[in-house]
Amino acid sequence: MISCDSKKENKAPTQDALENIFARKSVRKYLPEPVEKEKLEMLLKAGMAAPSGKDVRPWEFVVVDDRAVLDSLAAELPYAKMLKGAPLAIVVCGDKSRSSYWYIDCSAATQNILLAAEALGLGAVWTATYPYPERMEAVRKYVDLPDHIGSLCVIPVGYPAMPHNPKNKWDETKVHYNKW
Q1: Closest Cα partner for 61 from 5, 106, 121, 112?
Q2: Which fold has domain 29-162?
């Protein structure tokens, strides 16, 4: 089993943190091979390592590898068509009864999952369901979410089918010191 404890010898090989952040990209085409259980578990552990207001941790994760469900979600979610070719997806959800800011905490968890995917040699992309009621309802329908759980996004995950280059998003005009 792969550990998320950095002091253990059996951790998965990863990139330096800053190198990984700058290398992250949105991957929408995947090879037809499964993602190893150990790597999936690392993605989920990374999501759960995110910061959370008052340490409430309102997140819930639904792992979808059922081909029929992935295809149904691809058909209903306008920006998640790549689910048709993904071996799995992680639906990042939040418990609305535990936090009115669930979507903020779940956004941090989502970013951690995306960075972990990059570090593990996987491809992933954030496809939003929140705050769109029709998208959230589609997810609710196909993964049987209870009423108090809201979906933030669906993250298709797999091995990239082709090389992808990260975008350089640095823009010094968006940085202000002390005053606007």
Answers
A1: 106
A2: NADH Oxidase (3.40.109)
Nearest partner of 61 among 92, 102, 38, 40, judged by Cα: 92
Alpha-carbon span 177 to 23, nearest angstrom: 27
Question: What residues does 92 pair with on adjacent strands?
Answer: 61, 153
Which residues face 155 on adjacent strands? 90
Task: Enter the pTM of the model.
Answer: 0.91
Domain extent listing, the chain: 29-162
CB atoms < 10 A from the CB of 102, how many?
26
How far, in whole angstroms, is CA 119 from its chain's centroid?
Answer: 13
pLDDT tens, residue by residue, 134-164: 999 999 999 999 999 999 999 999 999 999 9
Residues 6 or more apart whose CB falls under 8 angstroms from that of 109 comprise 47, 48, 50, 59, 92
Per the listing, tokens 């009115």 go with 100
**What is the token pair recorded at 133?**
């009621």
Cα separation, 167 vs 170, whole angstroms: 9
